[in-house]
Amino acid sequence: MSNDWEYRLFQLIRRLYDWVLSWADSKYGGLALFVLAFAESSIFPIPPDVLLIALCLGARTKWFKYAAICSVGSVLGGMAGYAIGMFALDTWGTPIIEFYGKVDKYEELQAVFDEHGFFYVFLAGFTPIPYKIMTITAGAVKLGFGPFVGASVVSRSARFFLVAALLYKFGTPMKTFIDKWFNLLTIVFSVMLVGGFFLIKHVLH
Questions:
Q1: Residue 27 DSSP label
Q2: Which domain holds residue 124?
Q3: Has this prediction a pTM greater than 0.85?
Q4: Which of 33, 106, 127, 158 could in theory staple to 186 by disulfide, Cβ–Cβ 3.0 to 4.6 A?
Q5: Residue 36 in contact with residue 73, Cβ under 8 Å?
Q6: Number of Cβ atoms within 10 Å of the Cβ of 17
Q7: What is the pLDDT of residue 171?
């Protein structure tokens, strides 16, 4: 039964993935990118990078425009996730967390968010860590809205502008490289970034 459910879920996600990519050939590609980035920050499973990459490859000179659309949509969607966590945790937030199988992680996050919430939001915004879990958790534990938005703006913009700029400069070969190594590279970068913050906080002071 479990394997059958997992297979159906995989098939559903695959269909969603193909549907997302289909918007790259539409005149509404930019609007679809905004909606996808917004929804992915709180509920939708497919990351906006998929459509961002396709749009940038189709019109490389518009890379800045698409990165900006993706960033703005994602940050606004993050605010929606924050609102879900703060005002509708039981009715919306918990079911979303359960759907992604992150209930245990959510409970762990609640315990450490007061002190390290900004860094968790930042890391999730830049890396493959589910950003939506962090946005909902941030609202649920009432993380300061200013730090939350700041972490989201910096991390989401850094991620999407980096991807778009690389595609503008290197084109299709960079898409292959990103597809293969993006998760690993973002994790390595984030470890280095956190190490830098740790060094500044605990060694240089």
A1: T
A2: 2-202
A3: no
A4: 127
A5: yes
A6: 15
A7: 76
